[in-house]
Amino acid sequence: MTVSDEAYRRARLHAAQAGTSVSRMVADFLWSVGDDDLAIAEAATAREALAQRITGFRASDRLPRDDIHDRAAIR
User: Fold this and answer.
1) Which of 17, 27, 41, 73 gives a 20 to 30 Å CA spacing to 60?
2) What does the domain layout of the chain look like in residue ranges?
3) Mean of pLDDT values over 34-61
4) Which pLDDT does position 57 carry in this prediction?
């Protein structure tokens, strides 16, 4: 695939306004694509770790309401 002359001209204008080059913009874009993939992979890993930590939770493990609001026990 090739870039049209008009697309390249607009990219050069945008790069000049941003004080950079078209090559730098392309490189930054390519790095950002990799960053998105890395962020997705890290989020999936964190989600799996959290799921493993909370698998033993049961509603019956909760404290009774009276124990939670027992202010005398807190003092």
Assistant:
1) 73
2) 5-74
3) 78
4) 67
Contact (CB, 8 A) for 14 and 24: no
Closest to 26 measured CA to CA, from 36, 14, 17: 14
Q: Residue 30, Cβ neighbours under 10 Å: how many?
A: 10
Q: Helical H runs in 5-75? A: 5-18, 22-53, 65-68, 71-74
C-alpha 11/C-alpha 29 separation (Å) is: 13
Q: Is the pLDDT score of 41 beyond 70?
A: yes
R_g over Cα of the chain = 27
Q: Taking every pair of C-alpha atoms in the chain, what is the biggest distance, in angstroms?
A: 78
